[in-house]
Amino acid sequence: MSPATDIVEVRHALGRYPVEISVGGIERLPEFVERLAPGRRVAVITDRNVARVVEHPLKAPVLVVPPGEASKTRRRWADLTDRLFDLGFGRHSVLVAVGGGVVGDLAGFVAATFARGIPVIQVPTSLLAMVDASVGGKTGLNTRHGKNLVGAFHPPSGVLIDPGVLRTLRSGHLRGGLIEAIKHGLVADADYYDWIDHESAALLARDPARLETLVAGSVRIKAGVVSADEREGGVRVVLNAGHTVGHALERWSRFRLPHGDAVGLGLIVEAMVGEHLGGGAGLARDLAARLFRIGLRATLPGPEYDEALLDGMRHDKKALSGEIRMAIPDTPGRLAARGDRWTSTAPRDIVRQALGTARTLLTESGFHTLPPAA
């Protein structure tokens, strides 16, 4: 193991697993897999885009899926499961997910259900997956009712993160990972929140040392949260800040709006909801400025779509009896606690007002790119 490897341990109900972070670490993937899943037969799941640009030294069957959220379906899950059985895989197997969040979610759910559960090792190749999706054990598929509504908690046996592969990542996808990292700082660490803003130019330029520091910072925050609340019964819901609105925007756009951009807009709107509820004054404007500096230009769809967005928010996993609930940021490093420990009721009229106020703020701040139409 390289002395430069940063290791973060994640605890869960059945044990623990390592998250190893180092530039060039993907070259150690065969040793990593054998150490964590000794003697098991290996299959790799990836997508077409990643398969073209990310090289890894594993010698194993590779199951390739189309890129994008459209692959996170029950039909694709069934196809992958059948292909594994066709190749003779069984209970003494391990899946290695090489890709972004979609591949990680899909491969994780296949592993959770194949032969009643086999190990999975996550090798995230997007910044978004490195700082967020690969850690925590949540897997999921999308349905016509919303994102990740079918899934399971299935912790990986380990996560191997090589920030060096980010040189192949498109700038929009890099921004998506930075937005999730900003969210981590916003809900848990004000110093980290400010560090990202201070180092944003170097991060956008893909400085390897700063990217490694960013990934390690976010992984530590997320590891601390998920170790305390593996199954999202309490504090883990703070990681959903921005996602109630963000998932509704993704669903409205039929998943053509990138997840990171949707979460960025969601953070601004949900901070504005907090302001309308009497807290977090100025936070939405501060967030907008920070997100603008890392290149976010998407704005909200017009007010004629507000009802569709509100209906989408009612289908969020945090909703109770049709009531919209949000993990609302209050000040950097802290979430507002209203109504219960970690989420707050967001009345439809307040959310509607917040959408309008946020839309005005975005226009005044220079956001101008309309999201893809539904």
Give a written overview of the molecule.
This protein has 374 residues and is α/β, with parallel strands linked by helices. The protein has two domains: 6-178, Rossmann fold; 232-364, Dehydroquinate synthase-like - alpha domain (Dehydroquinate synthase-like, alpha domain, Up-down Bundle). Helix content is 44%, strand content 17%. The protein contains 14 helices and 13 strands. The strands form four sheets. Strands 1-2-9-6-5-3-4 form a seven-stranded mixed sheet, with helices on both faces. Helix 6 (171-188) packs parallel to helix 11 (259-276). The mean pLDDT is 92.
CATH class assignment of the largest domain: Alpha Beta
Number of contiguous helices: 14
- Beta-strand share of residues: 15-25%
Which strand order spans the largest sheet, edge to edge or round the barrel? 1-2-9-6-5-3-4
Main sheet characteristics: 7 strands, mixed
What's the shape? Answer: globular
At the third CATH level, what is the topology name of the largest domain? Rossmann fold
Q: State Rg.
A: 20 Å
Residue-averaged pLDDT: 92
Question: Low-confidence parts, pLDDT < 50 over ≥5 residues?
Answer: none
Helix/strand-derived class?
alpha/beta
Q: How many β-strands, per DSSP?
A: 13
Query: What is the architecture of the largest domain at the second tier of CATH?
Result: 3-Layer(aba) Sandwich
Order of secondary-structure elements: EEHEHEHEHEHEEEHHHHHHHHEEEEH
Counting structural domains, the number is: 2
Q: What distance lies between the first and last C-alpha atoms, to the nearest angstrom?
A: 48 Å
